[in-house]
Amino acid sequence: MSDVPTKIWVLRRGNGKAEVNPSPAVLRYKERFGIRNLTERTVEVVFPPGTIISLPSKGSRARRIKGIRARRIKTIPAGEIAVYRVVAKRPQFFEYKVTLLEVQQYAEGGSKPGVIVDP
Questions:
Q1: What angle do CA 76, 80, 84 make, to 5 degrees?
Q2: Is the pLDDT of residue 46 over 70?
Q3: Domains in the chain, start-ordered, CATH in brackets?
Q4: What is the pTM of this model?
Q5: Closest by alpha carbon to 1, among 68, 104, 76?
């Protein structure tokens, strides 16, 4: 797992809102990346069809069965990292949806509003 960089984080801010960073994700064809769930809930991650696939974790039954290349399970338990691979052929921005399952709360994109003060 250490050879796969974490590119997306799911977290909960002090105000209780769930957040994803970054949103959208910038990824390349065949890139493998991790999504880390830093919340206290299981999350479901959904990418547009045909763009990203989830890969089985080490030691899972799906990895041991010859010919199975990817699981379709897109949930990430609290505190865990899931590995994904890009199957879309061109580099692009990928929008995705993250839901905290037990409370049916959507995680929002991570951009905070900023202010520029020009003296």
A1: 60
A2: yes
A3: 6-109 (2.60.40)
A4: 0.75
A5: 76
